Amino acid sequence: MLLTFALALAAPQDLVLQNARIWTGTDAAPRGEVVVRNGRVAQDGEKPGDGARTINLKGAFVMPGLQDAHGHLQGLGAALEEVDLFAAKSYAELIERVQRAAKGRKPGEWIVGRGWDQNLWPDTSMPHHRDLSAATPDHPVWLVRVDGHAALANANALAAGKLGRSSEAPTGGEILRDGDGEPTGVLVDRAMALVPLPAPTVEAVRRRMLAAQQQCFLAGLTCVHDAGVSGDEADRLVAMADEGAWGLRVHVMLSGDQTAAIRRGPRASKSGLVQVRAVKSYADGALGSRGALLLQPYADKKGYRGLPLSAGLADLAQLCADSGMQLCVHAIGDAANRKVLDVFEAVRFADGAREAARWRIEHCQVVAEQDRARFVALSVIPSMQPTHLTSDMPWAAQRLGEERIGTAYAWRELLALGLPVAFGSDFPVESVDVRKGLFAAVTTKASPDGEPMRKDQQLSRVDALRGFTVHAAHAMFAEQELGTIETDKRADFTVFDRDLRECSEAEILSARVLLTIVDGRVVFEAVD
Q1: Buried b (16+ CB within 10 A) or exposed e, 353-385
Q2: Can you give the pLDDT at residue 10?
Q3: What are the structural domains, with CATH classification, of the chain?
Q4: pLDDT the model gives residue 392
């Protein structure tokens, strides 16, 4: 199979998609074909312009362009270049992968990796840097945990941050220590900033972004909500779109510390392909590293409730309201979700502006039942990642206990409240492969032969698809332009080799992306 990628610098070519099974994402009667004119869906019966390309899809499945409502493009691009630690089955295997990467590197060169998860190891306790340091004496090593909320540093990296017995963690961070009081090398959340990593060059950032874009197109994604971007990075992305060097639709969330960029308010590229309209902040850490903030202590760590990261959130929220920016806050634990709702409720909005603001809570993994109706009352959008459930399955009950796990990952219950539940992956924390998210939302299983974790939260195929299309579009103020295939809407489509509404559950994971189309441009094509 030949895979081709293209970014047309000129106007989009008119298209005719024929002989396909077309799901419009609406209750309207199915279309027989789709005609694209000037990057938009043409009226029924309207003819394409001269030079249009006609594509016979031979029964393939055409759907509104898939969106990922929470990803990290720069993180994905970096992960493609760094040491891959995903699915390492032991600490020894992790060290072996790092040693292989260090071969041929100059002494003193940083070794950076990502993806380890101690929950997959025979010994599920957090690692100590001792063995890693002995295996990598000539390099500083920095290995980010799978969730991005903890990292393991070797002795050289700890020395670069001047970290020792007397070092103190910042508020919202934790330095794990051994029985002698020395740092183990594991730094959690805001303590990670104590290690001074070398900043990537502008050229490296651009290279990584383009590599991430290609991965998104390969997965059938037409749009990504990019969570946590600097003001300079946002400006460069807008410039790349204006130059014609960028073709993926992006809803940019500025990092919460980018005060000057936030005050500038919403802006976009000339084509509207890239919009800077949102802000990303944090209220807690992650469940796997016990940084998620809980109302009651962790079931597997007596008296411990997690790390609060919400200092300054109230001021940031008011700044976003005053600047016309959408605020999207990471909250995983039930205490963190409650805190965010409290902050949102206290913000002063102009009359009628609260609902129009479409503020979001990212992840919403554990939400107290009495707080769910507050999402509706405060017009808050839940932005969730179905594959977090399947990745957390082996150990989530240990963290939360059997009773509390029965209230977690409740996307169906939030959807039943009438909320638009936007779906994403949180890549590179999870795979950029949308099929895995669809499968998780429909089955709540990690694999076709596995057992469901939350059978009561299983969604219909259409509801799951809507999470990655029209609900994600609503979460970026774009439901009038994206999310369904309707006249005059943007021509963003994903084409699969089989109908995802009707194929077997297992076939969701093996369905093949044939075409990815953004604004009428064929940006990815699989050719047999």
Answers
A1: ebeebbbbbbbbbbbbeebbebbeebebbbbbb
A2: 47
A3: 1-65+483-528 (2.30.40.10), 74-194 (3.10.310.70)
A4: 94
